[in-house]
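Async update (no meeting this week)

Hi team, since we skipped the sync, here's where things stand on the single-chain job. The sequence we agreed to prioritize is pasted below, unchanged from the tracker. I ran it this morning and attached the output directly underneath so nobody has to dig for it. Comments welcome in thread, and please keep replies under the output.
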Amino acid sequence: MSQSNLSDPAESTSTESSFGEILSEFEHSHQHGGEAVEGTVVSVSSDAVFVDIGRKMDGVLAPDPAHPLKAGDKLLVSIRGRDEQGNYTLSTIKIETPRDWSGLEAAYASKKTIGGTVLEVVKGGLRVDVGVRAFMPASRSGARDQAEMEKLVGQPIECRIIKLDTASEDVVVDRRVVLEEREKQAREEAFARLQEGDVVRGTVRMVTDFGAFIDLGGVDGLLHVSDMSYQRGIKPSDLVAPGESIEVKILKINRETRKIALGLKQLGPDPWSLTAQKYPQGARVKGKVTRVADFGAFVELEPGIEGLIHVSEMSWTRKNVKPENIVKVGDMVEVVVLGVNPAEKRIALGLKQALGDPWEEAVKKYPVGAVVEAAVTSLAKFGAFVDLGEGVEGMIHIGDISR
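Output:
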């Protein structure tokens, strides 16, 4: 009987479905890629340009030899995602603003993304300069609330014309659709870069009873509780917290369902790989009783390593032994290792062996010819059974009872 199944992350079909629904809902609630912001160059190196975009972490832009930048330069950039260090990955925006109505008509007909500048907050949305004054509904601004809308005032943005009436000079633009497309593109690029077996750094986004969702730079993966620790009974909240940056290993990627399974315990050695050396047969060890069942009791020898005391190895003397009458959960017990099978993650333990076999002492205590006093425990047609103490029972054959 296997004592644990810690390394198998598979769940039932219905559970996987619920995981997928939760992950999908969580991903849709977390939108940050594709946002256009104005940044200021902080420093320039041979392989990266660091840009202050007004957030806790800087943005990183690939240098362009044709257009060198220096500290202090201002430029319009688009947020594409995040790298392994947590920095925002950026790209420059080279979106033109139409110069006349013919340019607006061409952009509208081709659904082309254009540039604009937010002028002010008005009733129901924002006023945007896209060569002419245009209206952007609040619901299409990409802002979550009034405060975010107000922060857009004076900012350059990317948008798309969704209504154009040249007769009434009515222009309506949409920024949200551009953000969503940028976000989708960033996710696709980030997802394509990930490979099974990679060790990557991510940020804990959400912790649940069954695990944690980790942001891998625009793409979320699931770190299941069974892949967090080799130790049993661990809660996800005991190991990780929202906002924490951790390293994880990519265990599996399903390109069709876009699910990513992550592992934390796989970054360290499996404690079972060393059990044969640490717990040789015959060794006396101490452990804590973690579970009691009808067939025996499980004993934790170290975090992630449990052995089983079978009911038959609990007592030399008691018949029809009930494990709960011998040990309790939480008891510290001394046991003897009877056998180790690292491949099946099993360790057989003996409790009675640690107490000593009373029959070994009986040979010395009751030599042939010794006279002892004992109580009769039961009678049979062939003789009588007597109790010599300490679990040792003797029999007086009927032929030896009387001359």
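Quick observations from my side:
Confidence is low (pLDDT under 50) at residues 1-34.
The chain has five domains: 13-28+195-267, 36-92, 101-177, 271-355, 365-400.
Reply here if anything looks off.
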